[in-house]
Amino acid sequence: MQNRTSKVVFKDYNFNQNLLLPPSLGELIDPNHPVRVVNQVVDNLNLDPILDKYDGGGCPAYHPRMMLKVVVYGYLTNLYSSRKIEQGLHQNIHFMWLSGMSYPDHNTISRFRSDRLKGVLKEVFSQVAQMLIDHGHVTLKEVYLDGTKIEANANRYTFVWGRAIKTNTERIKKQLRELWAYAESVAKEELENNEPESFEEINAEQVKQTIERIDKVLEDKEVDKKVKQKLNYARKNWPENLKRYAKQEKQIGNRKSMSKTDPDATFMRMKEDHMLNGELKPGYNWQISTQNQYILDYTIHPDLADTSTLPAHVDSLVEVLGETPEVLVADAGYGSEQNYEYLENKGIEAYVKYNNFHKEQTKKWKENPYRTENLHYNEDLDCFYCPMGQPMTYLKDYKRKTAIGYEQTTRLYQAQNCKECPMRGPCNKAKGNRVIEVNPRLTRYKKQIREKLNSEKGMLYRSQRPVEPEAVFGNIKNNHGYRRFLLRGKEKVTVEAGLLSLAHNLAKLAK
Ligand code: SF4
Question: Cα separations (Å) of 93 from 33, 332, 424, 480, 499?
């Protein structure tokens, strides 16, 4: 036995102790706890858009205000699955307080998130953004835009490629033509006046009928074994395959790929490539605009590149804020002629870099006399002067459409005689006289942007950009561990992005 100099004393422990006046749950919650912010903010929201989604009749439903508080608080505390939130409602005093000791099960929580919030959460989010403006947490002055790719809840190996659909359809056309040619070689008279309208635009029904016709004329003939096998295969598979291809072609739209398990998800390269093998994964491009690290708007896109997402995102942002921001700051991923023109038309000052913005500032770039950007332009004569001082005169215009259908005009200028030029090696790799391509509108935009980005204000925005949306994404992905959407389909994924954005804003507000 241990030799003690003093008596051991324990605090009172009475497991079955009853309180004369049991405390309310609210008394047990810290006055500055984020759960109180969730409660207070959601209490002040107009939830009519969600209420309109209830049909009425049947059993009483859980109140959408309580459900919204519970789901948002789940996202704020890294509990994203409906089962985990259900567990929280039984075990966690904060959830119990929010729900007023109601216990909706995981199916109810999941249905509320997927169905009741679908298409209407943005209206609710907009009220929170307005509240942040009204209380001076954010202003409409400058807005920072960035995007991240988040994996979809879809099987990584169930891809459908737009090109494969086309190739397979072409293969069927070719083989059908071959089968028809074989049938003609065996029974030409019987197939006369019976030829399909076209082998070019084929569909499931037409292919089925053509195979039936071939079957019919070959039924009492001696047919090559291989042709028989092919016909059997075609009868069994081609109509079904063509139906599937037609459906997938519709779903895939302008994209190059999609996932079979979530047709709205596109295969894209993620930043987080733990295997370092550049594997493409099904995902969504999540765009946010922020200020003071609050999320002002969120949109979900199937696009691989950020460039094409800007107009849709800014349209949504203006709708959410009810006003147009004065300045938009974004990285080089958004710098394109179409985006500069779009922002100019909207009256938004663009602080959006373009590719090569940094390279252009280097000595090597500036002192390279052969670069088109460094050639002298004479506006009156509409000609450039090459490094030998020869005028490069206007040749022609050509128009081209970008992948998203935006028409660009490029002007071509040509040197007069490069034949004996001593600078030919470094200056002109082509056989004939050097031709340069200039896009005057883009050149004008680039000049404006360059001046703005190098101004004092521009330098400030540039230094602020990495600590704005990038830091917000870093917080959601690294601190909150959110790396994969749980729901499928663009609309439901947009709800998830909305809940994450709401939770982020309320957590920041609580701090
Ligand atoms: S190669 Fe042609 S374009 Fe280049 S410097 Fe000589 S003459 Fe001018």
Answer: 12, 46, 78, 21, 21
